Amino acid sequence: MNMASSALMLFLLVLYFSFQFSSSLDALNKGFSSLSVEKAEQDIIVSENGMFSAGFFEVGGNAFSFAIWFTTRPDSQNITTPTVVWMANRDQPVNGKRSKLSLLHTGNLALVDAGQFQVWSTETESNVPTELRLGNDGNLVLRELPGGHILWQSFDFPTDTLLPGQHLTRSTQLVSSRTESNHSSGFYKFSFDDGNVLTLVYDGPDVSSTYWPSPAITVWQAGRFTYNSSRIAVLNPLGAFDSSDNYNKRTSDYGAVLPRRLTIDHDGNLRVYSQDLSQKWYVSLQAISDSCTIHGICGANSVCRFDLKKGRKCSCVPGYKVKNQSDWSYGCESIFAATSNESKVTFLELGQVEFYGYDAYYLPNSTYTHCESLCLNNSNCKGFQYSYDNGAGVFKCYTKTQLLNGHFPGAAGTITYLKVPKGKSFPTSYEDSVIRNSDCSVKIHREYSKKHVSRFVSFLLWFATAIGVLEAACVFVVLFLIRSQHNSSIDPHGHHLATVGFRKFSYSELKKATKGFSQEIGRGAGGIVYKAILSDQRIAAVKKLNDAMQGEGEFLAEVSIIGRLNHMNLIEMWGYCAEGKHRLLVYEYMENGSLADNLSSNTLDWSKRYNIALGTARGLAYLHEECLEWILHCDIKPQNILLDSNYQPKVADFGLSKLLNRDVLNNDRNFSMIRGTRGYMAPEWVFNLAVTSKVDVYSYGIVLLEMITGKNPASDIQAINGDEPYNGRLVTWVREKKRECASWVEQIMDSALGSNYDENKMEILARVALDCIEEDNEQRPTMSQVVEMLQSQDCDPNGGA
Ligand SMILES: *[C@@H]1O[C@H](CO)[C@@H](O)[C@H](O)[C@H]1NC(C)=O
Ligand SMILES: *[C@@H]1O[C@H](CO)[C@@H](O)[C@H](O)[C@H]1NC(C)=O
Ligand SMILES: *[C@@H]1O[C@H](CO)[C@@H](O)[C@H](O)[C@H]1NC(C)=O
Ligand SMILES: *[C@@H]1O[C@H](CO)[C@@H](O)[C@H](O)[C@H]1NC(C)=O
Ligand SMILES: *[C@@H]1O[C@H](CO)[C@@H](O)[C@H](O)[C@H]1NC(C)=O
Ligand SMILES: *[C@@H]1O[C@H](CO)[C@@H](O)[C@H](O)[C@H]1NC(C)=O
Ligand SMILES: *[C@@H]1O[C@H](CO)[C@@H](O)[C@H](O)[C@H]1NC(C)=O
Predict the structure, then answer these.
(1) Ligand 2 centroid to 155 CA: how many Å?
(2) What's the CATH class of domain 300-424?
(3) Which bound ligand lies closest to the C-alpha atom of 80?
(4) Nearest-angstrom CA–CA distance, 11 and 8
(5) Alpha-carbon distance 271 to 262, whole Å?
(6) Which CATH architecture has domain 493-589?
(7) pLDDT tens digits, residue range 124-168?
(8) Could you tell me the pTM of the whole model?
(9) Ligand 2: distance of its center to the CA of 761 in Å?
(10) What topology is assigned to 19-157 in CATH?
């Protein structure tokens, strides 16, 4: 190592450590250390991967809570408030002066307000050294150092958020925050009920009720299973939410490894959020689609209506006025005096308005006059709901003592009749009021008497600081020594890219790993693929590119984009080699080979085929729609869909079109990167039309047809009726069968499957395939619509109702 590079290394390390030490901590140790509210900006514990931070979080003027949040990167300028995932003292913030979180000698972690009152503690005890550390998963763990026994962890005490891997159990619940900016406990709760079912409950100041799963249907109708008393629910990092009551859901971006969280929001809805690369959150799963069915939104005597543009709106029913304009949960009050003299009241019709709960009487088969007189006879009756039961062909009657959880439109055929005084006119079209959250922050000002810090204590503090600095210097020197020993193996690019598990390989290294490029496992666009065993014993697939772009910088730029893509249905790239004229790519190795191999050797039953179709669609949807860089594959075919040991598909060879020298490929008749492969090409290529992501959709559709029929669209010797130019023959044959016979799915099915398949699912697959190969690219669905269509097969009726 020469002088200049060691000097540079030293400089970088100094920079690195000065940053680390001035801005954050790794852990809190028993005895000396505490976090102080005055130094809220620096006294932050950061997880090793940097994703999470824990420290004092300002929740109001001079009011702080000890919290964990997603660290905001400095380049995400637009994100001003970090996303909090946990709070120790959400309902009792501490003063901005002299408040402290300390890990005491007794092993207790305690939060003290203004140097005086303990507002929160873990109530733990230990007489061995302990440490508080924030895990890469966002779990704050208090652990005994010898043995590693966990004394306490934040994952066992969630507030309103579950992080991937965190269990919701029989003893935990999520409680929403009060409003978007007020983090104290709100009215909505998410937990298992006594019948082992996951529920959302409105637990307001006056009333309480379950609104999800919908009370209009039984839990069985909602697809829930009530006999598994393990009561565990968990979100995994790929976006699958699974609960022991069979509420199993996949997020819309399922499969991508992204920061995610499941939160019960202050509006009572349960959502899974995912974070894109610019650190913005988007909703990838939502429990309730019609948010007016959430209870407690508009308060008593009002009706909630959902408007796609403006969101939810509350309005008072006729004859009532709003109690508190700035908080609709107070509801509305009547503007007339109640009367019990039945000859002085009348009923006002509110079409399609439905109220939930508080029925004095329920008659399953009633006449209008009978229902009306029931309400007239009861001075507490505010009105009645009269609805037609389609199944039985009769009218149902509910008389209401309270008008709560009103929403419009309710079930079809439902009318509510409102009891009002005779002879007065009330406007039947009531004024709308868009719900506003009163979100101005309340300032908490507390006065406390000041105590002087003794001289001895301040001396101790200085002493501790000095020791700390010395310790830091030692660590620094040791690390530097370790670093410089390893330095010979670090190359300038590899160092930078190592952070994403992606590295540069030398040509000789790969030559050795592939045993001199001896074991060929495939031939694809632009190169031959060899099996390799890397120095760390991982098995890899190494692709040697024939005619790759020669500029190394350009090549690296493209390759590192591909290396950043991360989805369970995309082949992972581990690294590359660019040396002299050699350009190689290193990928993970797939045990079960390609879809093409498996189709020809007939190893796939119908359910594997369906899963492969769904997984492939997910991978492509991610490429098309969710990456920052817009990527078309342009060469979808069974050879490029690889299968792992569980027959999960992974799309390979994406992003290559930019790496390869186009002229050379265009001259290759059989194998053009630009135009895809014969048999799978979209008509746009042939007719020279604008190329969009729909070319991949087309090729995908052909692959589906091949999976269904077992017939290869590119093969000339296939015995398919008809005779069409280019790749139309398989397509024409399937379309004809569909036109001609009702049992068309059966007719086109791969004979190798016999009659052993789910007819419904295969029909869905065939219909999706035909949609994808529409000649007009506008008519083809997008890949994410394909995912939805295939996924809706596994759906339960739980969502909206
Ligand atoms: C911040 O927001 C503005 C306006 O919405 C946008 O133009 C800009 O690109 C954003 N910056 C970042 C870093 O996202
Ligand atoms: C109950 O649920 C748990 C967690 O989802 C699962 O592991 C277990 O197999 C289930 N038990 C039964 C009897 O279904
Ligand atoms: C209305 O609600 C706001 C916010 O909750 C509250 O501060 C105010 O006191 C209420 N006003 C009345 C008249 O109840
Ligand atoms: C109800 O009102 C009518 C008309 O005002 C009156 O004649 C009658 O006496 C009242 N009945 C009772 C029970 O107050
Ligand atoms: C409803 O009530 C009417 C009158 O009592 C009766 O004739 C009819 O059979 C009832 N219908 C059902 C479905 O119970
Ligand atoms: C309502 O009260 C009147 C008189 O008190 C009685 O005749 C009638 O049957 C009652 N109606 C119902 C449905 O109870
Ligand atoms: C948050 O809401 C609670 C309950 O409504 C209230 O007591 C508290 O003062 C609010 N805190 C802030 C900071 O707005």
Answers:
(1) 21
(2) alpha beta
(3) 1
(4) 5
(5) 6
(6) 2-Layer Sandwich (3.30)
(7) 999 898 999 999 999 999 999 888 899 999 999 999 999 999 999
(8) 0.62
(9) 26
(10) Agglutinin, subunit A (2.90.10)
